[in-house]
Amino acid sequence: MTTHFIRGPAYGLSAEVKNKLAQKYDPHKEAELREWIESTTGRSLGNKFMDALKDGVILCELINKLQPGSVRKINESTQNWHQLENIGNFTKAITDYGVKQHDIFEANELFENCNLTQVQSTLLALASVAKSKGAKVPFGVKYADRQERKFQPEKLREGRNIIGLQMGTNKFASQKGMTSYGTRRHLYDPKLGTDQPLDQATISLQMGTNKGASQSGMTAPGTKRQIFEQKLGMEHCDTQTISLQMGTNKGASQQGMTVYGLPRQVYDSKYCLNPNSEEGEDGNYDHSHQYYNSE
Fold this sequence. Notes:
Elements: H1 12-23, H2 27-41, H3 49-53, H4 57-66, H5 80-97, H6 107-111, H7 116-132, H8 153-159, E1 265-266, E2 292-293
Antiparallel strand pairs: 1-2
């Protein structure tokens, strides 16, 4: 009794994918494949088409009929690994026969009945390759023969000097009006009656215009430019005047400022004596109370 691997039921997305693959299986193509395989191998497949191919024996006989010697040893055993070996030898043989790798099914897809649609597609691809090689196959398509073209080396070298249509065309092209590499190309409008620029010092319309420009009021590079309001009756400022943009120094005083780098003492009447009386009753300086340091 032949035993096979048991795969559990599929759920969710796996079940949905499996159902979609099963719907693509074509019974009409199965009948065509059955007739072709039985007429080629001389063996009957019975009522269950895929179950008859599951052990790989008929598949190996099929490829040996199409290309003798493809599979040297066919295992007639009912053991699982022997049947998987037959299927593996079949897929390797049809690859050498000319079937594309992306058209070939995996061994478990046939052995575990998980993707019989791919198995059917592989057999149809094998029939098409066999038909292209001259075998009598009543269905399928015949692949076109490869048309190889060989050109002489002289022709290949001549093609390097031709600009292909994919690169556009150089017809009607002209370098008229082009300037030297790296220099500007001046644009002017003939409707305005302007003359064509003759030197590189001319500013074109693309760069704006310098008409009406003046350097009046400009200061030396690095110095400030004073801003004043004429409506307020202000006079021109000099570099010594602090403008309104910088604030004002009116009412400012340096009273109470210490020497640069020294701390500034903060007086509090609760803790310090009167800051105006720095001498004691005896006329000596009292060191018992000092100002608290702000630090």
